[in-house]
Each structure stands twice: as C-alpha cells, then as structure tokens.
Design brief:
Blueprint: H1 2-20, E1 23-27, E2 33-40, E3 45-51, E4 54-61, E5 66-74, E6 78-79, H2 83-90, E7 102-113, E8 116-126, E9 129-145, E10 150-162, E11 179-190
Antiparallel strand pairs: 1-4, 1-11, 2-3, 2-11, 3-6, 4-5, 5-7, 7-8, 8-9, 9-10, 10-11
Amino acid sequence: MKKLYASLLGAFALAAAAQAEPVTYQLDPDHTYPSFETDHFNGASIWRGKFKKTSGTVVLDAKAGKGSIDVAVDMTSIDIGHDELDEHLRSDKFFDVARFPQATFKSQDVTFKNGRPVSARGQFTLHGVTHPLTLTIVSFKCYQNPMLKKEVCGTESTARFDRDAYGVGFGKDYGFKMETVLHIQAEGIRQ
C-alpha cells in the first residue's frame, strides 16, 4: 500500500511539474489566417484581405505567466478578393514581395491575466522595416481536438499600425489613410 501511495504521489508530482513547464504550439496553417482592413480613398470604403500562408510557433507557460511568439507570414499569399489588385499589392509599388517575401512578428513579452494570455508586445517586420507592435488577444481557448487527439489552442488577436511607417505608403498622395487594422485568427497544435 505504501508503494502504491508513493507511486501515486510521484505521478501527481510529475503531472504538476509538467503543467508548470512551457508548452510549444505549432501554428496550424489550415486554421491560421492573418487578415487586415485598410482605407480606400479616405473613407470611400474599407478593403479587407488575408494572407493564406503562415507558419510559426508559440510557447506558453501559464503558471509562470510567460510566453514567446515567432511567426512568419508569406506575403506572396495575399488575397484581397481581386486578382489584379493582389498582383499590384505583390509588386514593388506596394509590398515588393520579390525583395520582402515575409512579414514577421517576434515576441518574448506575453502578458497573462487569470492564467490566459491577453497581449503580446514584440517586433513586427514588414517590407524590411521593424517597429514595436502590441497584439491584443481578444479571445483564447484550448481544447482537446477529437480528430488530431491533441490539445489545440486558438485565438483572435488584433493590432493597429501605420503602414507608411514601414515604407508601404502607396495611396497616401491620393488621400488614403495609412492606418491598418490586423485581425489574426490562429490555432496552434501542442507539440
């Protein structure tokens, strides 16, 4: 009986230690799509688009209240729902994907509240220019995926930035507003 009790205590101790360790999640490319909203002719309309290819990892340690994010967005995968405009956005007049094929977000500063991440401050690189950017984590949920038989965590996150600060000022001379709003739907699979 003492051996059984000691074994159970040991198992509980290992389980508790495992929960306290950082957990790595690989972004699921089939469920991760950064999207954006941007002005067209100073309020005439708002154009919306998304990027169809994203990769990266997120490491979370809820008990310690720490985390990191390392994400790369394939800029060639832009889809704004208009083929001709997609080509324009890939050109050297806008994103210049031949020279800058990726945008990245890297963070070592994830803020937690009540055991859940609520924001991430990091460095956003777009068009070869890097500036600080803070993501607001609007929602965050983990669940046991019945098909994958693994834990999956998902989020809706948002941020705002001035695209002209990154050297993507096309349309500014026509009065386009430079503020861009990011909406990021992402899911990560526990590794």
